[in-house]
Design the sequence.
């Protein structure tokens, strides 16, 4: 399985979390929230019981900030999702907030901030260097064909299935969609998992949550957090795939279907619960996970990887991350003897050769 985090798309000019964070923080400062940002930073950077969870300001990115603002502006919903302990912590926080002289956004203002961030994400996704991305992915999927008969799991056995039969991503962009559309020989046919053509020829593909069977004739592409071209259609609340919300047939589209970059991702709600459960099914099918540019800060995904690595002796994971020192502590939850780490940036040609060599050897560990 090939798992793509934000670092994979950053290789082709799309903002990763740090890039979006820089733009979002500057936008918030321009709207009068500079004092609030300073309070968030100073609070989170303070040591607790002599230890620091956040080491520097770069760790406090837009995911952290939006999570805090979400709680501040919509506590009742957060309580329903996370329980009484959050209510207790929120009450304690209110005592310190009462002395805060800075500006705190209302729920409407927070929603407007999220909308601006979404626009920045979409704009960044559309500025991708698709030519460079297509060239690299052509090499990567050509590699897949050559290693399928030889690559090894953690038990020194060849699984004899295509290692990239499934591609899973937390990204919103259309890099692989464009690669599939503009593909060169040898062709790779992608199926965007869950999307089904509607009953009429003019209908957009819609997300069919009843479809749970593998299509072994194609590479399945699962987008865990939604996509910039997924829209909620007003007439039936279906999630449909289209490039813009403007329709020649008079359709109305409410909003994009994306999980925003916040910690409290609602994977218990459809369509994301369906997508996540399908991800768990993919983990069971494969024995080798190649994880690219992922920060390992999503507890649900981390736990899924950890459980698979711990329970099945044959599973191994190859992490491709040029900032591997930045995720060192987070990798500590995984069995070291099943890990390999490649620090060559995704998108560079030498990564292909390095990945081929590692796939054909037993895991060497990292720590």
Sequence:
């Amino acid at each position: 399985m090939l798992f793509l985090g934000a670092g994979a798309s950053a290789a082709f000019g799309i903002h990763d979390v740090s890039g979006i964070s820089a733009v979002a923080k500057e936008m918030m400062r321009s709207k009068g929230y500079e004092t609030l940002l300073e309070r968030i930073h100073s609070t989170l950077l303070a040591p607790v019981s002599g230890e620091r969870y956040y080491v520097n300001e770069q760790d406090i990115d837009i995911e952290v900030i939006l999570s805090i603002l979400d709680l501040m502006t919509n506590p009742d919903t957060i309580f329903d999702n996370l329980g009484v302990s959050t209510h207790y912590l929120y009450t304690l926080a209110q005592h310190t907030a009462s002395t805060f002289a800075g500006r705190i956004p209302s729920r409407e203002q927070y929603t407007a901030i999220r909308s601006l961030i979404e626009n920045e994400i979409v704009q960044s996704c559309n500025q991708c260097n698709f030519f460079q991305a297509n060239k690299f992915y052509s090499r990567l999927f050509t590699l897949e064909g050559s290693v399928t008969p030889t690559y090894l799991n953690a038990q020194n056995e060849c699984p004899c299935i295509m290692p990239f039969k499934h591609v899973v991503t937390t990204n919103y962009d259309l890099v692989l969609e464009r690669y599939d559309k503009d593909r060169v020989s040898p062709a790779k046919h992608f199926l965007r998992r869950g999307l089904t053509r509607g009953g009429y020829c003019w209908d957009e593909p819609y997300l069919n949550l009843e479809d749970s069977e593998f299509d072994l004739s194609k590479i399945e592409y699962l987008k865990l957090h939604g996509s910039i071209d997924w829209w909620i259609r007003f007439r039936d609340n279906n999630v449909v795939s289209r490039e813009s919300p403007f329709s020649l047939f008079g359709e109305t589209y409410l909003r994009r279907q994306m999980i925003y970059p916040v910690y409290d991702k609602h994977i218990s709600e459809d369509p994301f619960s369906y997508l996540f459960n399908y991800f768990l099914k993919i983990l069971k099918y494969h024995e080798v996970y190649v994880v690219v540019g992922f920060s390992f800060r999503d507890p649900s995904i981390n736990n899924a990887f950890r459980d698979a690595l711990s329970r099945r002796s044959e599973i191994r994971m190859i992490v491709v991350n040029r900032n591997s020192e930045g995720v060192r502590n987070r990798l500590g939850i995984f069995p070291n003897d099943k890990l390999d780490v490649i620090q060559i940036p995704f998108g560079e040609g030498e990564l292909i050769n390095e990945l081929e060599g590692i796939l054909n050897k037993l895991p060497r560990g990292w720590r």
